Amino acid sequence: MTRPLLEDSRVHPSVRDRLAQFHPEVIAEVAAAVQREAVVVVGMRQNPFPRKARRLLDAAGVRHTYLEYGSYFSGWKPRLALKMWAGWPTFPMIFVQGQLIGGADDLARFDLKALAGGRLQAVAGA
Questions:
Q1: pTM of the model
Q2: What mean pLDDT do residues 71-77 have?
Q3: Taking the domain 14-116, which CATH number applies?
């Protein structure tokens, strides 16, 4: 199933330009990390779920890169740009082998021992 996106033809060209220039440096930083690293967690301060995801990964011995953008009190625009880019509405955003797998609860559905060995594998029955 393809997620619904507003077609470019339905967005005025001046708005398309503004969207293209909405924090491209943050998107480029995350995209580069996702391409370069096996596991990337994108989060924010004060949110317990990025911390939960990182603890799960640490406990399983999975090396990961953590990128943090602001808090509940700051950095909402760069985070909004990331949400628009990824199509994921919350933090953390967890990428494994270049693929967005969701958030902390979604991470728990994967076999973290297999992930530590470099394989992305869902837990049976999850």
A1: 0.90
A2: 96
A3: 3.40.30.10
